[in-house]
């Protein structure tokens, strides 16, 4: 099987690597995370101008290609740079749901604005009681003659504090945890009845909880078929899990390289600590963990692009491996850097915090291991 990237994908990979090297050191990243948007609007516009925001969409939607391989290329480089811009939230989740829900005028318009960097979006799907179960939904949408009335609360909405529009999951039929009966609604962030509470997660990203009190939306706000929202969500979340694993791989490769380099300069007992065999073994373990993740990532990408019947199982296995490997690599990186590994002045701790958040997004390793076992 050919795992080589195309010329276009290599060009994107190289341009992202140059952007990170030239413009995205730790000081710049911390400055972007600390501002009121939680990222740099200038960087986001650069992403649009260089075509990176179009990578995840099909050509007939104005995009570059839309394959899992295309997204993997982008996310791995974003991971290496610990890039804070909301690529996952706006492009892959919000944009992905728009694309998956149909190719009508509304989708074309919004995706066009997104690709141009003029629209920020968020996917509001988690609730306080749901933990990792995306079908556990208490938010309701009551249908009327001219639209729907939404009531409920959503938590940990990525990019929700600055999003222009939300895609909200709400129950229109069925019991609380049923796959059937979930519907997706496009809601303006400033619609009457919406209140937001913003806060930051441990990796610095800005998220929010939103409350919907009798929020009125028209019939056109329904994305896809009524009661069939899970069928739209499932492939988008599957692709997002691959993307998160690619980001995690980039972080693991960065941490491994940083740790190896540090071991060559840090001296103990008059010699570089990299000369100690026991520490060499631990760094080899870091390398192997990253390589195992890469192997499963390639398998999941190939399955997804080929629309294989094994794709779901491959993606879940990848998420388990990403969580396990990320914990090993992150822990070893901190330990081998000693007390410096925990200091905010060094980027190692920031990378590890991001790995921890990736592990919990769409289910941690333990949760997905149980899902994998249930598939048989």
Automatic annotation (TrEMBL):
Q: Where is the Acyl-CoA dehydrogenase/oxidase N-terminal domain?
A: 6-117
Q: If you read the UniProt record, what top EC class would you report for this enzyme, in one word?
A: oxidoreductase
Work out whether the entry's keyword set contains Magnesium: no
What is this protein identified as?
Flavoprotein desaturase PigA
- Taxonomic source organism: Zhongshania aliphaticivorans
Q: What is its EC number?
A: 1.3.8.-
Needed cofactors, names only, are: FAD
A GO molecular-function annotation? flavin adenine dinucleotide binding
